[in-house]
Amino acid sequence: MSHAFGESYRVGSTKGVHAITVFCSWDYKVTEKRASRLQQDNIRTQLKVSGHLPCPTAPELQTSLPFCCPGSGFGCTLDPVSVGQEARLLALPLVVSLLNLGASYLFRGLAALERHESPGLEVYVAISRNLILKMAILGILCYHWLGRRVAALQGQCWEDFVGQELYRFMVMDFLFALLDTLFGELVWRLISERKLKRRRKPEFDIARNVLDLIYGQTLTWLGVLFSPLLPAVQVLRLLLLFLVKKASLMANCQAPRRPWLASHMSTVFLTLLCFPSFLGAAIFLCYAVWQVKPSSTCGPFRTLDTMYEAGRVWVRHLESAGPGASWVPWLHRYLVESTFFLFLASALLL
């Protein structure tokens, strides 16, 4: 695993890489002009990436911060349950989806103005901007749900509210993804061909689309405790989105002229899916299970102080049932409640 990880990140010696790229990269079976141009761009990109590239500076990575935090804070200060109308419940998901969509186009405009010489630097700056935006939005939303809403919904079922809210966020994100795919890419192709008189179609933005998938998956992980059918909705959403994206890609887009290093970028995206996304969702759910008091009017945990106490209550019932199940309380005491085993399991999983 460490060897494959290092290979995907191009860690280690680069001796002879330039010679191999220059003398052994050209495919002489290629005769079409467009395919020849793509192969030239591919070799040029490899030579740029294999050289010594400057790391992103602090101002470059902080360009997106003025657009991320105030916007996401504005979206999360709305109070959708203060008005009894059902339409008002869509205010917060609508604002967040608009912010995600508008910021993605803003970041693309900034990238076009900056004109980075290094393709690797351009990709990492785009990923950093979108990642900071989405993580800031989700972080503020988690505080909004488990902090403000739990306190405001005293005597009501806040678990239902959080599950319904995440369901609305997923549906709204799906609708905006469809609108962006069906109309955004089509309109941009028509402008590029008829107004700008370009022969080439707009390029497909791989980084933004993959980060949108990670954002949708994070919403699923956040809501799986409060809305158990949310993963089924996510599977259906991904199937429909794949078919629409494929049709739009064939009709309105083309492959990027700067080819991606497949193994390298796959490792980068899996890392983003694992650590900021899955780890953040796990922290959110662990805090809800261990610290937040369940609703007193609904749910299987309404008589407990925390959801975690349900395990202890179950163990007490087993202890009073008889000696036949005495090994279950022992497992719970030494494997579940033991901090040493908890730290050991966390270290192994990380």
Automatic annotation (TrEMBL):
Major localization class: membrane
Record-annotated TMC domain positions: 157-263
Any GO molecular function: mechanosensitive monoatomic ion channel activity
GO cellular component: plasma membrane
Record key words, sorted: Membrane, Transmembrane, Transmembrane helix
InterPro entries listed in its UniProt record: TMC, TMC_dom
Coiled-coil segments on the chain, per record: none
Keyword DNA repair: no
A Pfam family this chain is assigned to: TMC
Ranges annotated as spanning the membrane: 90-111, 123-146, 166-188, 209-229, 267-290
Localization terms from the record: Membrane
Entry superkingdom: Eukaryota
Topology of the protein relative to the lipid bilayer: Multi-pass membrane protein
Similarity comment: Belongs to the TMC family.
Protein name listed in UniProt: Transmembrane channel-like protein
